[in-house]
Amino acid sequence: MDKPVIILGAGSLGKAALEIFQQNGVIVYCFLDDNKDLHQQEIDDIAIMGSTDDDGYLKYIGKKCEAFIAVDDQSYRKGLVTLLKERRKVMPVNAVHSSAHLATSAHIAHGNFINSGVTIGAHAKVGNHCLLHTNSVIDHEAELGDLVQIGAASVVNTGAKIEEGAFIGSGAIIVSGVTIGKNARVGAGSIVIADVKAGETVFGNPAQAIKS
């Protein structure tokens, strides 16, 4: 990556992204965050310069800088994606930890956070703006839609499909061939052996729907 990066979001995910970029020899220009109390503070000598919609800094994105969205709230993250598309006509870059293992045949789209120890297998597909936390596994030929979040140490087995906006909690196991529907949620430590409907929340071993 030739250009410096502006990180949108100065919380814990932003700090993790900073470490990834610095380990990979990428310069981080600054942080932008909507919490005004953080403005003009620093994280590891990198300044939090302003809000995420500050055109004084956004104007650099796409010309002199790249952008990375370091926000784990799905609606907030989606809004920042839209902001970058509409104002700067760009997609955010990926933050890939140096210890992650990505198969050469895997397809990785834009704006993904791929933390330490993540494994992405042969011919797996990862959409845009996903969060793959520490030691998670996306096995061969598994598919993730856009804005999917995979918790630490979770396993998405061979050929499983996780649709847009779904959340997989830490330590969960999605067995081979299962589909997790759009915006569904899987509780931490669950073992999912059957398809999960769009918008449904499941938990347990085997995972069962939680009635609202």
How far is the first residue's CA from the last residue's CA?
46 Å
Please state how the strands of the largest beta sheet are arranged side by side. 6-9-12-15-18-21-23-24
Structural class computed from helices and strand pairing? alpha/beta
The overall pLDDT average reads: 96
Unreliable spans are none
What integer value in Å does the Rg equal? 17 Å
**Approximate helicity band:** 10-25%
Shape: globular
List the helices and strands and how they pair.
Elements: E1 5-8, H1 12-23, E2 28-32, E3 42-43, E4 46-50, H2 55-58, E5 66-69, H3 74-88, E6 95-96, E7 101-102, E8 107-108, E9 113-114, E10 119-120, E11 125-126, E12 131-132, E13 137-138, E14 143-144, E15 149-150, E16 155-156, E17 161-162, E18 167-168, E19 173-174, E20 179-180, E21 185-186, E22 191-192, E23 201-204, E24 207-209
Parallel strand pairs: 1-2, 1-5, 2-4, 6-9, 7-10, 8-11, 9-12, 10-13, 11-14, 12-15, 13-16, 14-17, 15-18, 16-19, 17-20, 18-21, 19-22, 21-23
Antiparallel strand pairs: 3-4, 23-24
Name a few traits of the molecule.
212 residues; 29% strand; 8-stranded mixed β-sheet
Descriptive report:
The structure is a single chain. The strands form 4 sheets. The protein has an 8-stranded mixed beta sheet, covered by helices on one side. A 6-stranded parallel beta sheet has the order 7-10-13-16-19-22, with no helix packed on it. The protein is 15% helix and 29% strand. The protein has helices spanning 12-23, 55-58, 74-88, and strands spanning 5-8, 28-32, 42-43, 46-50, 66-69, 95-96, 101-102, 107-108, 113-114, 119-120, 125-126, 131-132, 137-138, 143-144, 149-150, 155-156, 161-162, 167-168, 173-174, 179-180, 185-186, 191-192, 201-204, 207-209. With 212 residues, the protein is of the alpha/beta class. The radius of gyration is 17 Å and the shape is globular.
